[in-house]
Amino acid sequence: MDTNIIFSYIQSYGYLIIFLFLFFGIVGIPAPEESLLFFLGILIARQQLLWEYCFVVSWCGATIGMITAYGVGRFLGQPFIKRYGKYVGIKEEKWERANQLFQKYGKWVILFGYYVPGVRQISPYMSGVIQFPFGSFVLLASIGALLWVVPIMLVGMLLGQHVHVPLFYLPLIGIVFFLLFLLALWLKQLFSKKSFEN
After folding, report:
1. Cys-Cys crosslink for 90: which of 85, 115, 132, 146, Cβ 3.0 to 4.6 Å?
2. What sign for the dihedral angle of Cα 54, 57, 60, 66?
3. Structure pTM?
4. pLDDT at residue 195 greater than cutoff 50
């Protein structure tokens, strides 16, 4: 979605639209979450939005989206998600990929899965399906949302203060963060392999 359209929505509906974009992005309805967070940082730097409201509303949207998806997974179960998940982008191959990550990394997927498009949408549903302890889930999801929202928004703020970023580049930011996360996972796996061999 064009960032100018996003900005016009924010101007028309205020901070509520930020909450809704983050909420719907987490539950699986397509929304440009990383691009939005980065764009918000730029708008904050240009003093067009208040940083405290942006941080709180974005964090609430992501966290409440996670809790909602967890509830769907826990109370409606895997058959429901496998049947209707395709309508919110949860396809069979994505589910299996997320399942493999969940089996391998467990709670780390909840905490850092925000940085991986697809995984962040599936991990709360899966947590509910396997009945991951709710209290632990809320804690991890809340901290993970903070670790996702704050850095991306801060990068936008820093660049917004010092560099003029053409708006048409913003959708690429999400891809950059996704690639960095994959690189971090690969390096971690590489070093853990070497430690194991030694």
Report:
1. 85
2. negative
3. 0.73
4. no
Q: Nearest 5°: CA angle at 109, between 106 and 115?
A: 170
HEC secondary structure over the chain: CCHHHHHHHHHHHCHHHHHHHHHHHHHCCCCCHHHHHHHHHHHHHCCCCCHHHHHHHHHHHHHHHHHHHHHHHHHHHHHHHHHHHHHHCCCHHHHHHHHHHHHHHCHHHHHHHHHCCCHHHHHHHHHHHCCCCHHHHHHHHHHHHHHHHHHHHHHHHHHHHHCCCCHHHCHHHHHHHHHHHHHHHHHHHHHHHHHHHC
Give the list of residues 6+ apart from residue 179 with CB closer than 8 angstroms, or none: none
Nearest to 107 by CA among 144, 72, 53: 144
Q: pLDDT tens across 56-66, in order?
A: 999 999 999 99
CB 144 within 8 A of CB 111: yes
Determine the Cα–Cα distance for residues 119 and 194; give it in Å rounded to an integer.
27
